[in-house]
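Protein Record: Sequence and Backbone Structure Tokens
======================================================

Structure line: whole-number tokens from a learned vocabulary of local backbone shapes, matched to residues.

Purpose: to set a sequence beside its fold so the mapping can be learned.

___
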Amino acid sequence: MSFIEQIKKRAKENIKTIVLPEAEDIRTLQATRDVLKEKYAKIILIGNKQKIEGKAESNNIDISGAKIVDPENSEKYEEYVNLLYDLRKHKGMTIEKAKELVKDPVYFGMLMVKDEKSEADGLVSGAIHSTSDTLRPALQILKTAPGTKLVSAFFVMVVPNCEYGENGTFVFGDCGLNENPDEEALSEIAISSSKSFKQLVQKEPKVAMLSYSTHGSAKSELTEKVINATKKIEEKMPELLVDGELQLDAAILPEIAEFKAPNSKIKGNANVLIFPNLDAGNIGYKLVQRLGKAEAYGPLCQGIARPVNDLSRGCSSKDIAGVVAITAVQAQNG
């Protein structure tokens, strides 16, 4: 059974309700149809009911099982205006500004997820919004999870016909959010990514802190950052299998690790790859996705109080449906 089929199977065991605020995008509607057909989550679409239903009908997409909520006509509108005002008044939020923001489907969706009386368990956005337009309201409304110092992003990469990682399954972090993390931030990204791997793949994480150097083969500020981040991880979470700094080949190829890093704790069997900055992470995941024909699920978020996941604006309806399944499983642990 593939990674995503396993995720869908787990999602079906405890059905959660996921909010999709980009409801006028055809990919979102196609994903809604597919999720409802496979019955691994309930869906709430946010937006103008007439426009959403009209777009679905004109494209012959059955979304009849989804709930559609129009912010401006919702009985929760005033309640959510006051909630947003209370959450952000110390940052200069006014009632007038809150009234405008709550009409925005992403803000309204986040408030639904925040609302303990609402049936919403998580949210997926990003097909037509930038990462910042998805994550800004998430951080303003939902805040960070208890004990979390940093919100970061990761991808689950599933590489076909691949013997490396966990039968071709990896977590890549951070490929979507933190531009140039310092050694403390890099250590937090690695720890969060290891927990995400354990939660979603249900296997022991083996974390490689990537660099252009392996165990001192080069020396610079860039390599020192990765070395120091690795030391911090070992101090914070001594039970975690982690090694760095490692070049990519020494991280995932046992025969190369034996030559370049004979004392490595992960011995070329890394399944969680931590990139030193966003340039490397973004380029890395897209290379694997496009040249390796990998399935790329993300950017998924870690460190937010409730499950919220971003999408690449180049995503397909299949990608959205997969991220909905992942978000549903994350919500089971919330």
Summary: The longest helix spans residues 183-201. The chain is about 45% helix and 15% strand. The chain has two domains: 3-143, 152-291. The chain has a mean pLDDT of 92.
